């Protein structure tokens, strides 16, 4: 029995793993870093994974949308969003450039950090 599935407030293990891998690879490719506070990174990755489950695409979890399906189709805020791709601007603080005061030294997140953030959601 998959506990994640039972609590539909949380993403599936499959999407969570996919978004964890995406975030780690994308940080390395763009030479950006995760936040010094791993719970920030964990909450954003969980939010992306939940949107991937519910909407079929990792719509940015840090914004309010009137119509999420329409936003997915518009693609602008599908992660990595246009501001990130064009200017390395991630307002979720998932991908931080080294000059950012909140940037840590990690481009990886542990399963433990992901799970402890999910336990609070
Ligand atoms: S701001 Fe952009 S890059 Fe950052 S999590 Fe949201 S969609 Fe992804």
Structure description:
With 121 residues, the protein is an all-alpha fold. It is built from 6 helices and no strands. Helix 2 packs across helix 3 and helix 3 packs across helix 6. The radius of gyration is 14 Å and the shape is globular. The chain binds iron/sulfur cluster.
Briefly summarize what is shown.
The protein contains 6 helices and no strands. The chain is mainly alpha-helical and 121 residues long. It binds iron/sulfur cluster (SF4).
Strand elements, count: 0
* Element string (H = helix, E = strand): HHHHHH
The level of helicity is 40-55%
Structural class: mainly alpha
Report the C-alpha radius of gyration, rounded: 14 Å
Could you tell me which ligands this complex binds, including any ions or cofactors? iron/sulfur cluster
Number of DSSP helical runs: 6
Major beta sheet, specifics? none
In terms of per-residue confidence, which ranges show pLDDT below 50 for 5 or more consecutive residues? 1-5
Distance between the termini: 20 Å
Mean pLDDT: 95
Percent of sequence in beta strands: under 5%
Question: How would you sum up the global shape?
Answer: globular
